[in-house]
């Protein structure tokens, strides 16, 4: 596993659980508004240093009694060739719950993890409406994401879909299209953009949406989805 960092305690990343958050290196998307842009390259720079797995598992031994689970995020965790083995070790040796954050662009691997009963909570980023995904996704990934979305909606998983909304990239019409394409999903979160450490330098001066604008997005999505929430 290419582990890029660790947040030792979080009460917001894993719903209703206290979790450690472990970050994986490498992503197959290049979202201009990404706030973890240092995690996008698969190969790290000379200034960076990966975290040894041994350090992570030693940390879990010491802190297990204080944690309910582990959130695995990135980057994109599904790019890690030994992700399943990593998750199995957390489950079997430390008996902790697992949350996975993903862009869902690897249907086969995600399906394997779901069928192995390794995911206790799944969070999937839906970046745009399908017709706009070419802004971010390499060719061929959209069909994978669509298959993953269908799999998740028809599963018994505890999950959420979420969209980080950015002024100039998302508006009510875009939210309507996103909501329509994941219709019947159980939970959808609208997340406000934060102009911090973004991949595109010009977005570091971009504003976030006002609460009233986020509420308008929620009203739009409510017409198509069961439970729509705002993360401001």
TrEMBL record:
Its cofactor is [4Fe-4S] cluster. Pfam families: Radical_SAM (PF04055). Residues 13-232 form the Radical SAM core domain. Keywords: 4Fe-4S, Iron, Iron-sulfur, Lyase, Metal-binding, Pyruvate, S-adenosyl-L-methionine. Transmembrane segments: none annotated. It comes from the Bacteria. GO terms for molecular function: 4 iron, 4 sulfur cluster binding; lyase activity; metal ion binding. This is Pyruvate formate lyase activating enzyme.
